[in-house]
Amino acid sequence: MNSLAIRLGNKEISYKSMPYIIAEIGVNHEGSKEKAFELIKLAKEGGADAAKFQTYKAEKIASKNSPSYWDLSKESTESQFQLFKKYDSFEEKDYCDLADYCKEMKIDFLSTPFDHDAVDFLYELMPFYKIASADITNVPLLRKIGSKEKPVVLSTGASNYEEIDFCLNLLSKFNIPSISLLHCILNYPTPDKYAHLDMICSLKEKYPQNLIGYSDHTLPDAHMTSLTTAYNFGACIIEKHFTDDKSLPGNDHYHAMDKLDLIILKDQFKKISQLKGNKIIKEPIKSEDISRKNARRSIVAVRDLKKGEKLTEENITYKRPCFGIPTSDWDDALGKALNKDITEDSFINWEDLN
Question: What is the model's pTM?
């Protein structure tokens, strides 16, 4: 197994660790700082490692002629500019307040920057930068983030290997401690049939120098199946939108998880981690010693056998437990003569043979 380990916030992350969970609040606070505080609290209570927001101004992220790319039956706003304008009211001071509250709650504060100004003022507030899928080819923004020389977590939605390599090569020119890649499908929401979680495995194979995670946009089910499957496939960073009410209309509520989902997810991760164990090489474990002895078979006399009689396929059989000659030595025992009488159903040992 890849032994690569990195630090995100106050947690060391590797393929052997529990996943680093990012509760993507985004703009589900809908412009209310009090609501943002409440969502941070709920994310902490649910067991998330980080509460993440999005920092943008509509005028800087989208032109006024910017068509949607989400399911309009869930979010009816047809213009990106109009949607972003609804939720871009937070200023630098507000993000500082959110970061302070995260520190108080002992959960990492994150916010994805979408412009140079955001990259600058978020620098002191966050342990690492999260780059959105849509900016994987955004040269000026990538350079700006790279110049800060903090760890980077990069979503790879709607990209191919060439574009991922382009981004990694650009960021490699800076002294960035670590770059992690998140498999992501840039559909809001993502139908299960489009999740393609096997891409996690291919990313792990192609980029062994980068830890791989998963940013999820599927609709959550009762067992958080998409995220637990991603963890089974090796995702060690998990990001999903977060809300206090999944029934709320529009924006990112409808494909988000809530506090209860988070609690279920953490319990599932613990169960899966326990099931995975810490052994990689296939070998018996200590608790199997009694099974190896009592459940395996050894050579047994079919009938009473006399001294001098040779063992044949007709006068011996195999039975549990493995108290005599093991059945792995069956061929070596055949043809050997007994040096003592053996009664029916008795185990035959090597010292019983000439």
Answer: 0.91
